[in-house]
Structure formats: structure tokens, C-alpha cells
């Protein structure tokens, strides 16, 4: 479990750096850290996910001072929602696709409204790019994290 | 009536999905292709361009020396004729180290701060002299620069000699000009510019791309295309 924790911390930190450095500038309109938090919420317990959500939310808000702890509260909210839905519909595969799509769309709308930057085109591109990238990240990450863990 | 079979329906669905994904990621593919062409495929051209730049550097150094001597002569003559000295704009070069981690704000972080003489509301231009943003906040070791396409960006600008308006950023890239009246006779391709108190030359912002009149609005809906390439910005020059 400790090795998994270290791996998740590394992955989330890399996602945080990707969001900050933006090697593809704003051609790629997605937030990797949010996708990482959704990934952790889907595969790990509520307490575990909350810990990462709070830490990385505060890290992100330190570079986003105009709205006080906005991303921290966003992450906490989505972690609770995803964990609650996961507890109700754990075995159903449609749950994962639906909850990911709902989270991404809600996050986009929340940001657009809270930051007074609602743009349908930008929200649509953000949702589609994030949805596709999430499944790529999920496929490779889950294999890497679970394959190399000695407890498995 | 012919209906597609289950296999054909699946084939159509996946084809549609691939096309949709390609359309959404089109800009990413274009950027990656250009990046790899410049840095990986045509790297031999970089050697030629480095040699050309070295030659140009030497020529510019000689030109600078010549202009320096002219400037000294100019200063002596002005002093002799009691003409007041005009101030010159100071430029500070800065590399962008990162961006705001939120997709909904376009803020760049640069690695210099108050110690280099920066202050809030300083304008940022690119290497071609076009406006790219303005300084939002200056700290000791870093500075936050709001880019033109930040939705919170606003700046009073001039439209040729037809008056002034308020330039506002949008996430899409095209800028909006607010408070433009019909009587100002703003039309497409009009130049948008502004002056800085520290410079003697105008700073070019962009050109008007569309002018629309809404029935329920007193002012015109004017769109401006910025001259600077903001999407691929990696370095800025800040006016002191």
C-alpha cells in the first residue's frame, strides 16, 4: 500500500506539473490534475482520495489566488459524489462511464459559471478531450500501479 | 426498408467516434507535427539558421556602436541648444515558466519580480512588438502576467483615429471591443493600438475582424483579431 501511495503521489505531481508547464500550450484544453483526482476517487477509498484531493487542491489554489480555495472545494465535492455513487453501483460498468462524464461536464460548468467564463465551444472541447484522455490515463495507470505492487 | 446490421452499426459508430475525436484534437496534432518538423526532422536547418544569426549579431553590434556614437553626439548638441531629454522605454526580457493550472484563466508566470523594476499594469509585448498582455501582480521572485485571451483581461485602446474602446479578452482567442458607438464609424480591418506613457511609439494590438449591430444594444459588437500569436507564447518583453 505504501508503494502504491508513492506511485499515486508521483503521478498526481506529474499531472500538476503538466497543468502548470503546459507543453502543448492551450491547444490541449484539459486539466490533468482533475482527471487524476477522478481516477483516485474511482479506485480508492474515500479517506484516501480526500487526502490527495485536499493536498493537491491547495497546491493548485496556490497558483490560483483570485478565488479562495476554489479547486480544493471542487475536488472535495467531486470526491464525495464519486465515492457515494461508487458505493451504490459498484458492479455496474455503465456507472464508471456515466460518473466520469458527469464529473467532467459538471466541473466544466462549475468553472465556467464561477469564473464568469462560460463558453459553449470551450466547454465542449474540454469535455471531449478530458473524457478521451481519462480513459487513456485510466487504462495505463491502473495496469502500472497494480502490476508493480508487491502486495498483488 | 434496409437497416444496418449489428456489425455495420458498430462500424459506423466507431468511425463517427474517430472522426469526432480527430476534430477535437486537430489543433493538438497540428502543433505536434509542427514541433517535430522544426526540432526533429529538419534539425540540420537549425545549424544554418544559427550561423545566419551569428552573422546578423555581428552586423547589429557594429550598427549599435555606430548609433551609440550618434546618440552621444545628439546629447551634446541637445545640451548645447538647451533641449529637454525625452525618456526612452526600458524593456525587460522574461521567459514564461508556467501558466495558470486552470483552463479558464490565461495567466502566465515569469521568473522575474520586483527586484528587476517591474510594477503592476506594465504592458507585455512579444518579439515583434505586438501586445500580448499586462502585468497583474508582482512579487519578489515572480510575476503574473494576464494574457490577451484571459476573460478577465481589459485595457483601454484606440481604434485608428476614430476614438477609444475597452478591449476585453475571451477564451476563444478573438478579443471584444466594448463601448463602441455607431458614430465612431469603426469598420473591418481597422487597426487597434495603444500608447504607453513610457514609449514614444504606438503598440499594435490587432485588427477589427467583425462589426455587428444588435437591436437591443446601444453599442456595437466589435471583434478584434490579435496580431500576436498568444497560443504559442514562451517569452515576453515587459515595458518598464
Characterise the protein shown here.
Chain A has 152 residues and is mostly helical. Chain A is built from 6 helices and no strands. The termini of chain A are close together. Chain B has 240 residues and is an alpha+beta fold. In chain B, strand 3 and strand 4 form a beta hairpin. Chain B has a 6-stranded antiparallel barrel with strand order 1-2-5-4-3-12. Chain B has a 6-stranded antiparallel beta barrel with strand order 6-7-8-11-10-9. Chain B is extended, with a radius of gyration of 24 Å. In chain B, 31% of the residues lie in helices and 30% in strands. The model of chain B has no long low-confidence stretch (mean pLDDT 82). Chain B is built from 3 helices and 12 strands; from the N terminus they run H-H-H-E-E-E-E-E-E-E-E-E-E-E-E. At the A-B interface, helix 1 and helix 6 of A face helix 1 and helix 2 of B.
SSE layout and pairing:
The complex is a heterodimer of chains A (152) and B (240).
Chain A: H1 2-21, H2 32-43, H3 46-62, H4 70-88, H5 93-114, H6 120-147
Chain B: H1 6-24, H2 26-41, H3 43-81, E1 91-99, E2 107-110, E3 123-125, E4 131-138, E5 143-147, E6 154-159, E7 164-168, E8 175-180, E9 191-194, E10 203-213, E11 220-226, E12 235-239
Antiparallel strand pairs in B: 1-2, 1-12, 2-5, 3-4, 3-12, 4-5, 6-7, 6-9, 7-8, 8-11, 9-10, 10-11
Cα end-to-end separation of chain B: 73 Å
What can be said about the biggest beta sheet of chain B?
A: 6 strands, antiparallel, barrel
**Structural class category of chain A:** mainly alpha
Helix content of chain A: over 70%
What series of H and E elements makes up the topology of chain B? HHHEEEEEEEEEEEE
Strand order of the largest sheet of chain B: 1-2-5-4-3-12
Q: Largest sheet of chain A at a glance?
A: none
Low-confidence stretches of chain A: none
Could you tell me the mean pLDDT of chain B?
A: 82
Please provide the ordered H/E string of secondary-structure elements of chain A. Answer: HHHHHH
Amino acid at each position: 500500500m505504501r508503494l502504491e501511495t508513492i506511485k499515486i503521489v508521483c503521478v498526481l505531481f506529474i499531472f500538476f506539473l503538466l497543468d502548470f508547464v503546459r507543453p502543448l500550450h492551450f491547444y490541449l484544453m484539459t486539466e490533468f490534475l482533475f482527471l487524476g483526482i477522478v481516477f483516485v476517487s474511482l479506485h480508492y477509498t474515500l479517506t484516501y482520495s480526500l487526502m490527495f484531493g485536499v493536498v493537491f487542491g491547495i497546491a493548485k489554489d496556490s497558483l490560483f489566488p483570485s478565488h479562495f480555495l476554489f479547486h480544493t472545494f471542487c475536488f472535495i465535492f467531486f470526491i464525495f459524489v464519486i465515492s457515494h455513487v461508487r458505493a451504490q453501483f459498484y458492479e455496474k460498468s455503465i456507472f464508471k462511464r456515466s460518473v466520469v462524464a458527469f464529473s467532467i461536464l459538471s466541473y466544466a460548468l462549475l468553472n465556467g459559471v464561477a469564473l464568469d467564463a462560460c463558453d459553449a465551444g470551450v466547454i465542449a472541447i474540454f469535455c471531449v478531450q478530458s473524457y478521451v484522455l481519462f480513459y487513456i490515463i485510466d487504462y495505463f495507470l491502473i495496469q502500472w500501479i497494480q502490476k508493480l505492487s508487491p502486495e498483488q | 426498408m434496409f437497416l444496418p446490421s449489428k456489425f455495420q452499426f458498430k462500424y459506423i459508430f466507431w468511425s463517427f467516434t474517430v472522426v469526432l475525436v480527430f476534430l477535437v484534437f486537430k489543433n493538438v496534432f497540428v502543433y505536434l507535427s509542427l514541433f517535430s518538423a522544426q526540432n526533429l526532422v529538419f534539425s540540420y536547418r537549425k545549424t544554418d539558421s544559427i550561423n545566419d544569426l551569428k552573422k546578423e549579431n555581428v552586423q547589429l553590434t557594429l550598427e549599435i556602436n555606430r548609433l551609440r556614437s550618434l546618440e552621444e553626439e545628439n546629447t551634446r548638441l541637445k545640451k548645447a541648444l538647451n533641449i529637454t531629454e525625452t525618456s526612452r522605454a526600458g524593456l525587460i526580457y522574461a521567459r514564461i515558466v508556467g501558466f495558470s493550472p486552470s483552463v479558464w484563466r490565461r495567466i502566465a508566470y515569469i521568473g522575474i519580480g520586483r527586484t528587476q523594476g517591474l510594477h503592476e499594469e506594465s504592458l507585455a509585448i512579444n518579439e515583434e512588438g505586438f501586445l500580448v498582455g499586462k502585468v497583474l501582480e508582482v512579487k519578489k521572485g515572480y510575476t503574473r502576467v494576464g494574457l490577451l485571451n484571459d476573460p478577465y483581461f481589459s485595457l483601454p485602446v484606440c481604434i485608428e483615429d476614430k476614438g477609444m474602446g475597452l478591449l476585453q479578452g475571451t477564451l476563444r482567442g478573438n478579443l471584444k471591443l466594448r463601448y463602441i458607438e455607431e458614430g465612431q464609424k469603426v469598420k473591418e480591418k481597422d487597426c487597434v493600438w495603444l500608447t504607453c506613457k513610457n514609449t514614444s511609439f504606438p503598440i499594435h494590438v490587432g485588427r477589427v475582424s467583425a462589426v455587428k449591430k444588435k437591436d437591443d444594444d446601444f453599442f456595437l459588437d466589435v471583434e478584434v483579431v490579435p496580431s500576436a500569436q498568444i497560443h504559442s507564447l514562451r517569452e515576453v518583453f515587459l515595458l518598464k
